[in-house]
Specification:
Chain A is of the alpha+beta class and about 575 residues long. Chain A has 17 helices and 24 strands. In chain B, helix 1 runs antiparallel to helix 14 and helix 11 runs antiparallel to helix 14. Classes of the chains: A alpha+beta (about 575), B mainly alpha (about 325), C mainly alpha (about 300).
Chain lengths: ~575, ~325, ~300
């Protein structure tokens, strides 16, 4: 009897632990978006000049007393150990699904172009990229003399090979190459052709790609592809059968900064530096990714067993790590946000005044303060404060104001009834609210929301559900209000706010927003895109389709002896590991 | 006896079929599927449809069931959607790590529980009995993750006697023997926690069972015969008190291979429990179903062996 | 005269074995104390919150994480809520769900185990195979599905926990059934059962009056162990969306809220009160159980 209880208990509890340290998601070419997980992406640490050390808040706090460092860390002069949640073992850029797999394949493989720290596009393997007049043909020249770690030269035909894999009907990885509209891609998918006509191999190091239509995402869709050696991966490949490639998932071979030498599933991934790396041999000869848990991550940083780890942000954790004195602690914004969604097809929420009232009437600052203290910020637009597309001009901050909320509800025709609850046309303003069970924010959100809305004369009936269950309810449109959090892509384009968009399960529709979103997607020049998105966010902010709640932070702590860790929300630490150094 | 064995083995077949239908139905009812669980903001509807077609998720449920069941009978558990490898491979990679912890914990906790149970029963109401009772209930009142956390803090962080977590030291280089020693060192804390958790309930069962037996008339007879107390307790009382333990042992079989989910998570131990949880979260159906059937089979076998042993151990029982 | 009456009364009391058992039980000091403690627990948890100056929804971020003071006797949690109040309110939930789940599981398990063990043959085979199926069911997916079903049926979220624990009890009868059945298989062949056959007793009388009472010890042990297990299991359900909804507290989820190195070390007032409550409840139920077993067994040592 007790055994069964223990089993249920173990089962259920461990979900919590697993989910809270959950894996981020990845769509192959673009820098991934994060899930509700905590150990995710990177922050705004620039290399040399440390940002002002902020006491309790966002920024980098440098180690106060490196002399206290643990001896086993100091002795490890030629190896960097990075702690992280376990990768799935899908060490291949076309299959890797979690951000941890990405940390691996990003250092083993190279792409033609990559995101810079500020989400601009920079050349990597590509020596040059030229775009035709009509914007439909991209010509790439690969740098000379680049080889895979087994000595074979990197060839243009490898690009064609990867594209074939991505267009294969049996390909089930996270990338969706069809949205790039490469000419001849559909024919390959259908099996009508055994090559992709839009990809033209000009020489061993030069090729061109032609698309049938382009937009702002095209440069990255085409150039962000990682090159796989065809002689290694293509040996057993036939159209419609990727089994031979999947068999090589944990034995990757690429041209990248490090070479994978050993993989113990669930424990560690071991690498050695690629002396012939085309951007320069990595400064740290040995690298280990060690698997840690939400308990052991901080403990191992403390004991010196790891040199770097992301950690869950809380006042306690930051304080513990900073106190040690030999860790650099970086609190940086997470590229994502938490929100409460309205189902605008429900007559209760189709009126903008009601939505605005419910936003004014919720003390979002208290919710954020209660859970994250100074380590998260209230957000008012669906975009990260660090994105080039974000703006604060013309944005209503919806500061907590019960009177204003009440006035708006009155205007919308919801009158307080005899039982204290508002009614209109015989319908009471009772709201069924669902929250994702695994998010720590609900501890504060639900009580505060219930209390706040009670004052407004709104009755809140709150329930919690498993994450997937809420997502399914959202897909079916079977909800009134729900709380969830999701991640942002580096590019502001998405299908959430456009009428009938794939991700628009909220019934939101604003024709002007549709126009702006389409215009922004078409435009390639960043400076011209900025005002388009600024206006769009102003509209969305006013329409209040969501109650935008918070943008939280992620924590990354690193041992003081590690220098030149370069990362931002758009570029992971792994992309620049070859530049990282260890103090001797 | 042989008839009994054959009959039981035959009965397992409809039982397994019944289980397979139920768990398949559960997997079909559970909200969301592998595609929605990925929560990919850039997923287009067409791509989602293509993926579902690749995985066969667009077919009607009964058809999926028969495909899956048919494959299972031939030993093909299918490929894990998350790991993109055969389910049997994934299980094989991780299950032995869990087994290691489980088997040591089983041996140690049973040994300790038997001794504690016997002595508690022999000296009922003594100081020893009361202290042990209190300790046992203390261990049961705190959840496992708490005890794990406590041990990590005190024994690993503060005192530094044991490694903080993981199965081996990072980048371990050395001989095979040294590697085994390293793994053993890392396994001590998880084994300790698991043992502490099971010892409580086990010792209560053994104590109760022992108390029952000690009061029986034949024990008085044995004492009256002049046998030493040691012989009375260990030879006569013990054997009879252990009978219910056989049933308990039968429950342990699936546990040996099922993984200790919370502990694996806390100690970053690469066990199968964590993998199973991940598969539920991400709706990795082949793995979920395959592993559940695997555990179900072990449950059936465990109970069957327990029944067999019970019949053999207690001459009063006639297995029919 | 008075002496005779007392003797007569004692005779009457000793008439039925149940009466005798009750008188033995009430003379067992420890068992009685344990019983009183449990009753006190219930009273405190159900009446206490009414006397408290705080209410469930009250929060005060400025007062967060403060140790015990005169205004907050047990300190506050991370949202500035009074711990004493939360422990009492949590007790309501934990005590009830612990009992519901256990009672249901024991009731179903003991009955099925007894019937299966007694009748043997195909009855035994059928019930035990059904038990096998129940044992093989994966609890986690079932709970997730249940959460969604309860949500679709618009069951009041504050009531869902009781449904869930009842279902959990319903899913957990298998171990008790197997243990009881095992015992009954042994007992069935003993001489006293032959006597009942000779006496021509009805089956139900044989099972309920003679066999089951002898399995009471093992039932009691299982039941008391499972109460603690049930209380703690409830705490983990909130992660699946089938537990209590914040700000409602339960002892289990108060403990799991303090589940990190810093709270464990620096803020013991967060987890010691609920942990102590679970401990006291479990020990008390166990001692009562021990007393019950001793009371029912006429051969028990009298101290």
């Amino acid at each position: 009897m007790f055994k069964k209880w223990s089993l249920v208990l173990s089962l259920v509890l461990a979900v919590s632990l697993l989910v809270s340290a959950c894996s981020g998601n990845n769509n192959g070419n673009n820098a991934p978006a994060a899930n509700t997980g905590t150990n995710q992406e990177a922050g705004t640490e620039q290399t040399e000049a440390p940002a002002e050390a902020v006491e309790g808040g966002i920024g980098l706090i440098k180690a106060s007393d490196p002399s206290k460092n643990q001896q086993i860390a100091l002795d490890r002069t030629d190896t960097l150990i990075v702690g992280m949640t376990e990768p799935q073992g899908l060490f291949n850029p076309i299959f890797g699904q979690t951000v941890y797999d990405r940390y691996v394949y990003e250092i083993v493989f190279d792409s033609l172009v990559e995101y810079g720290l500020d989400a601009s596009i920079e050349n990597s393997l590509a020596d040059s990229v030229t775009v035709s007049e009509d914007g439909l043909t991209y010509t790439y020249k690969i740098k000379e003399g680049v080889t895979y770690s087994d000595g074979t030269p990197v060839k243009a035909s490898d690009y064609l090979f990867v594209m074939k894999l991505l267009h294969d009907p049996a390909y089930d990885g996270p990338s969706d190459i069809h949205s790039a509209h490469i000419v001849g891609g559909q024919e390959y998918y259908d099996g009508k052709s055994d090559t992709i006509s839009g990809i033209n191999i000009i020489s061993d190091t030069e090729f061109s790609v032609t698309v049938s239509e382009y937009n702002a995402l095209t440069p990255m869709s085409l150039g962000g592809v990682y090159l796989l050696p065809e002689h290694y991966y293509g040996a057993g490949y036939k159209h419609g059968d990727l089994q031979s490639i999947k068999a090589l998932l944990d034995k990757p071979l690429g041209s990248g900064q490090y070479i994978l030498t050993d993989y113990k599933p669930g424990q560690e991934v071991v690498f050695v530096a690629n002396e012939n790396y085309f951007k320069g041999a990595p400064k740290v000869p040995n690298l280990i990714y060690k698997v840690t848990s939400s308990v052991t991550d901080i403990a191992m940083l403390q004991s010196g067993e790891t040199d770097m780890n992301d950690f869950t942000i809380s006042a306690d954790n930051v304080e513990t790590l900073v106190e040690l004195g030999y860790l650099d602690v970086n609190v940086h914004l997470n590229n994502g946000y938490g929100y409460v969604a309205f189902n605008m097809e429900n007559p209760k929420f189709s009126d903008k005044k009601v939505r605005q009232a419910l936003t004014y009437g919720l003390n979002r600052a208290d919710v954020v303060e209660g859970i994250y203290g100074p380590y998260a910020e209230v957000i008012n637009i669906p975009q990260s404060k660090e994105s080039w597309s974000a703006t604060t001009e013309g944005i209503n901050t919806y500061d907590f104001d019960t009177e204003k909320a009440k006035a708006l509800l009155d205007e919308a025709g919801w009158v307080v009834g005899s039982d204290g609850i508002r009614e209109k046309d015989g319908v009471k303003l009772e709201i069924n609210f669902s929250a994702t069970a695994d998010n720590p924010v609900i501890d504060a959100l639900i009580p505060i929301m219930t209390l706040n809305y009670e004052e407004l004369g709104v009755k809140l009936i709150a329930e919690t559900l498993e994450f997937n269950a809420i997502m399914e309810k959202k897909d079916r449109g079977d909800y009134e209000m729900f709380f969830a959090a999701w991640g942002l892509t580096p590019d502001p384009d998405n299908t959430i706010f456009i009428t009938g968009g794939a991700q628009n399960d909220f019934g939101y529709s604003n024709p002007r927003v549709d126009e702006l979103m389409a215009a922004g997607k078409k435009e390639i020049d960043i400076e011209k895109r900025k005002p388009i998105y600024h206006e769009m966010y102003q509209l969305i902010n006013d329409d209040a389709p969501f109650i935008f709640l918070y943008q939280r932070t992620n924590g990354t702590a690193s041992n003081a002896r590690v220098d030149n860790l370069i990362y931002s929300p758009y570029k992971y630490f792994s992309a620049s590991l070859y530049q990282t150094t260890l103090q001797q | 006896m042989k008839q009994y064995i054959i009959r039981r083995l035959l009965q397992m077949i409809p039982t397994l079929i019944g289980i397979s239908i139920i768990i398949f139905t559960l997997s079909a009812i559970i909200p969301g599927d592998f595609i929605t669980a990925q929560d990919n903001p850039n997923m287009t509807a067409e791509r989602a449809a293509q993926l579902r077609a690749i995985y066969g998720l667009d077919k009607p449920n009964y058809e999926r069931y028969f495909t899956w069941a048919g494959n299972m009978i031939q030993g093909n558990f299918g490929d894990s959607l998350m790991h993109k490898k055969p389910v049997t491979d994934v299980i094989g990679t991780y299950v032995w790590n869990s087994f290691l912890i489980a088997i040591f914990s089983l041996i140690i906790s049973w040994t300790l529980a038997i001794f504690v149970g016997i002595f508690s029963a022999k000296f009922q109401y003594s100081l020893f009995d009361k202290l042990v009772t209190l300790l046992v209930f203390l261990l049961m009142s705190l959840p496992s993750f708490f005890i794990g956390l406590l041990l990590i803090k005190v024994l690993a962080l503060d005192l530094g006697w044991f490694p903080v977590g993981g199965m081996s030291s990072a980048g371990f280089k050395g001989t095979t023997f040294q590697y085994y020693m390293d793994v053993l060192e890392h396994s001590i804390l998880p084994i300790t926690v698991l043992t502490m958790l099971s010892i409580g309930s086990l010792s209560r069962y053994f104590r109760t069972s022992m108390l029952e037996v000690i009061r029986q008339d034949y024990i008085r007879t044995a004492r009256a015969k002049g046998l030493s107390e040691r012989v009375v307790i260990f030879k006569h009382a013990f054997r009879n008190a252990m009978l219910p333990a056989i049933t308990l042992l039968g429950f342990e079989l699936p546990g040996l291979f099922g993984g200790a989910m919370i502990l694996e998570q806390i100690f970053a131990w690469p066990g199968i429990g964590k993998v199973y949880l991940g598969s539920i979260n991400m709706r990795d159906y082949p793995f979920m179903l395959g592993f559940t059937i695997f555990l179900a089979a072990l449950t059936l076998i465990g109970n069957f062996i327990a029944d067999l042993l019970y019949g053999l151990a207690d001459p009063r029982i006639r297995l029919k | 005269m008075p002496i005779k009456k007392k003797a007569q009364n004692r005779l009457k009391a000793a008439d039925s074995p149940w009466r005798a058992a009750w008188s033995r039980f009430s003379r067992n000091k420890f068992a009685l104390i344990a019983f009183i403690i449990i009753v006190l627990m219930f009273i405190i948890c159900f009446i206490g919150p009414i006397l408290s100056p705080y209410s469930l929804l009250d929060y005060d971020i400025k007062m967060k994480n403060s140790p015990p003071t005169t205004t907050h006797w047990l300190g506050t949690d991370k949202l500035g809520r009074d711990i004493l109040l939360r422990v009492m309110l949590a007790g309501r939930i934990s005590l009830i769900v612990g009992l519901i789940a256990t009672v249901i599981a024991v009731f179903i398990g003991a009955t099925i185990g007894a019937i299966a063990g007694f009748y043997g043959k195909w009855v035994d085979a059928l019930f035990m195979r059904i038990a096998d199926i129940f044992m093989a069911l994966p609890t986690l997916p079932i709970l997730i599905i249940l959460g969604v079903v309860l949500s679709d049926f618009k069951v009041d979220p504050s009531q869902r926990i009781y449904f869930i624990m009842a279902i959990i009890g319903f899913l957990n009868w298998t171990s008790i059934a197997r243990l009881v059945r095992g015992q009954i298989l042994s007992l069935r062949e003993q001489e006293f059962m032959q006597a009942t056959v000779a006496l021509g007793l009805r089956d139900s009388r044989k099972v309920f009056r003679h066999l089951l009472p002898n399995t009471v010890p093992i039932i009691i042990v299982t039941a008391t162990l499972s109460v603690a297990g049930a209380i703690l299991t409830e705490s983990t359900l909130s992660f699946l969306g089938v537990g209590v909804v914040p700000p409602t507290a339960s002892w289990g989820n108060m403990i799991s809220a303090a589940n990190n190195l810093v709270d464990l070390d620096k803020r013991p007032w967060l987890w010691i009160p609920p942990g102590l409550c679970v401990l006291i409840t479990t020990v008390a139920i166990n001692i009562m159980g021990d007393g019950l077993r001793d009371a029912l067994d006429p051969k028990a040592k009298k101290n």
